[in-house]
């Protein structure tokens, strides 16, 4: 699965749109990234830019844009309301999809080192990327701002993490970090009272509210022995919130930033705001997400609300998103279009190449029947196996809803989730098998005039052929994993659907056997006979096991049918 990260650099220029345009043009010229948002501020003289993409491409774009900003912005002439100490003031990286924070931290350090060494800009690493505990706090890193940099850099305790400990008058200093994704979400209330909205915000936000003598609103604020105000924390970690009135909608809202969606997922925050509002006689009628969110936010919410309803989690991604939208009322005030609000969907929309799996059944069959050699047997094998996984999943979902089996919903939900994952990966392999064939064709098309070109072409053909052998072998592995699902459904699932489990077995084994033929034919062209021999032996063992399982499960299926 493709890894995606977000980069949110803040530049110390918010007034000269010519400069801002030159900076954002750099991002738009970089391959593999997409510019999502440009937010200039006149008073702060600062622009926040958001772009996303695959990690290597993002850090390349980040380096280039930091370089451009250092050429265009002169910090010795900068003034603005926002704290700052560099032309590119901060440059955080944020995990979005299929990547851990630990991996993002490594990319942040790689970026920081390159900026420091090649551009000679001092770099402090903050948040999760901090090398020194105190530097997790951005305010600590930025203390003294630009005007205090010469003194700071002369202090051995404030030596930069990367780059020279030398004052760069024009570019200043940049803080490179790794942090969690920030979600901005507003909760719609059936009241016009800002004071009541604020009370709910104070109930839940991490900071909470100041403690008071007597009356919780008008009483004197309590202080500790050192004269500092005493606060009662709210119930949600990693959140900031206030109440306000929205003229456009004629209602009050609780406006919240969730700064750590790992600590406090969006659906947990929604449920808690609903609970605190209800305790005050107020109802949350819905919510609105401001900006974009990773797909995981909605999938996790969908799973959460399905679980609360004792319903199977083994449904499609699209259905889970719909459940999330309806459960949190994201379409309460205006339509919510996931294609415009989910980062991964926006990135996918840029890819204009049509996938086989996006065709109609008729279109796919016609494409296969055409005179083109691809899609061929490998793609068809993966597709047959995906249908086997889909049938096993269907039986699991039907069983989870069978009257009288309510206490078994979670058991069948777990099987359905496994089936959905297998189905999705096998569908991916449908297109990947065709892509691997095209890689071989591309390698054959490489130039072969010189001895060096001939050697490179030969190596490329062999590498592509190895990959084209691995793909059907992967199909065999995943198709074989469908069999335990179908067996469990034949044994334990709704007996009215046992024939569907049986057809699932036949489809999965057809996928195994079909992919085996592709392993054999592709491996036959390999010069690395040891590698080819090993994968063929493993494939043969997989096929024999699948055929033995087929016989066992079909006997079980027929036994149930004939009962």
Concise synopsis of the structure shown:
By secondary structure, the protein is an alpha+beta fold.
Characteristic key phrases:
Formiminotransferase-cyclodeaminase, Chain B, domain 1; 563 residues; globular; alpha+beta; 14% strand; Alpha-Beta Plaits
Explain how this protein is built:
By secondary structure, the chain is α+β, with helices and mostly antiparallel strands. It folds into 3 domains: about 5-180, 2-Layer Sandwich (Formiminotransferase-cyclodeaminase, Chain B, domain 1), CATH 3.30.990; about 185-350, Formiminotransferase, C-terminal subdomain (Alpha-Beta Plaits, 2-Layer Sandwich), CATH 3.30.70; about 355-560, Four Helix Bundle (Hemerythrin (Met), subunit A). The chain is built from 17 helices and 13 strands. It has helices at about 15-30, 55-70, 100-120, 140, 150-155, 195-205, 265-280, 295-310, 315-325, 340, 345-350, 360-370, 375-400, 410-445, 450-490, 500-525, 530-560, and strands at about 5, 10, 35-40, 45-55, 90-95, 125, 175-180, 185-190, 210, 230, 240-245, 250-260, 285-290. The strands form 3 sheets. Strands 1, 2, 3, 4, 5, 6 and 7 form a 7-stranded mixed beta sheet that branches. A 4-stranded antiparallel beta sheet has the order 11-12-8-13. The protein has a two-stranded antiparallel sheet with strand order 9-10. A hairpin with a 4-residue loop joins strand 3 (about 35-40) and strand 4 (about 45-55). Helix 8 (about 295-310) crosses helix 9 (about 315-325). The longest helix has about 40 residues, at about 450-490. The radius of gyration is 29 Å and the shape is globular. It starts with a strand and ends with a helix. The model has no long low-confidence stretch (mean pLDDT about 95).
């Amino acid at each position: 699965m493709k890894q995606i990260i977000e980069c949110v650099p803040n530049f110390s220029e918010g007034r000269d749109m010519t400069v801002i345009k030159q900076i954002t043009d750099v991002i738009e010229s970089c391959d593999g990234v997409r510019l999502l948002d440009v937010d200039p501020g006149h008073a702060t003289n600062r622009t926040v830019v958001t772009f996303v993409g695959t990690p290597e491409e993002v850090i390349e774009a980040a380096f280039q844009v930091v370089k451009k900003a250092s050429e265009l912005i002169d910090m010795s002439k900068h003034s603005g309301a926002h704290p700052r100490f560099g032309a590119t003031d901060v440059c955080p990286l944020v995990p979005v999809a299929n990547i851990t924070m630990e991996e993002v931290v490594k990319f942040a350090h790689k970026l920081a080192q390159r900026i420091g060494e090649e551009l000679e800009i001092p770099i402090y690493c903050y948040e999760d990327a901090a090398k020194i505990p105190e530097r997790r706090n951005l305010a600590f890193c930025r203390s003294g701002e630009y005007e205090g940099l010469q003194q700071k850099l002369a202090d051995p305790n404030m030596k930069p993490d990367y780059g020279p400990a030398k004052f760069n008058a024009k570019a200043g200093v940049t803080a490179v970090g790794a942090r969690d994704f920030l979600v901005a979400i507003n909760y719609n209330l059936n009241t016009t009272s800002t004071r009541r909205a604020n009370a709910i915000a104070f109930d839940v936000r991490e900071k909470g509210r100041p403690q008071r003598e007597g009356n919780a609103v008008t009483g004197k604020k309590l202080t500790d022995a050192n004269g500092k105000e005493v606060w009662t924390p709210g119930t949600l970690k990693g959140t900031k919130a206030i109440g306000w009135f929205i003229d456009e909608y004629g209602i009050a809202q609780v406006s919240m930033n969730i700064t750590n969606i790992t600590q406090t997922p969006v659906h947990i925050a929604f449920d808690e705001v609903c609970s605190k509002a209800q305790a005050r006689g107020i109802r949350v009628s819905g919510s609105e997400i401001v900006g974009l969110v990773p797909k995981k936010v909605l999938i996790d919410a969908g799973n959460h609300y399905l679980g609360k309803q004792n319903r199977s989690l083994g449904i499609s991604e699209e259905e889970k998103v719909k459940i999330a939208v309806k459960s949190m009322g994201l379409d309460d005030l205006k339509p919510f279009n996931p294609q415009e609000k989910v980062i991964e969907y926006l990135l996918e929309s840029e890819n204009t190449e049509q996938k086989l799996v996006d065709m109609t059944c008729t279109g796919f069959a016609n494409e296969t029947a055409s005179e083109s050699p691809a899609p061929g047997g490998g793609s068809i094998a993966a597709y047959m196996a995906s249908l086997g996984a889909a049938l096993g999943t269907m039986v699991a979902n039907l069983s989870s809803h069978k009257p009288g089996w309510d206490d078994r919903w979670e058991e069948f939900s777990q099987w359905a989730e496994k089936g959905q994952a297998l189905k999705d990966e096998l569908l991916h392999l449908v297109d990947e098998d065709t892509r691997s064939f095209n890689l071989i064709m591309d390698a054959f098309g490489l130039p072969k005039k010189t001895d060096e070109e001939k050697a490179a072409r030969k190596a490329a053909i062999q590498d592509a052929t190895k990959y084209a052998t691995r793909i059907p072998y992967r199909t065999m592995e995943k198709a074989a994993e469908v069999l335990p699902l179908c067996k469990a459904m034949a044994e334990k699932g709704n007996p009215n659907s046992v024939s569907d489990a049986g057809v699932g077995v036949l489809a999965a084994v057809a996928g195994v056997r079909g992919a085996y033929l592709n392993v054999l034919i592709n491996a036959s062209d390999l010069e690395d006979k040891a590698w080819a021999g090993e994968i063929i032996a493993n494939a043969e063992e997989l096929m024999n096991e699948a055929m033995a399982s087929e016989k066992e499960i079909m006997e079980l299926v027929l036994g149930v049918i004939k009962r």
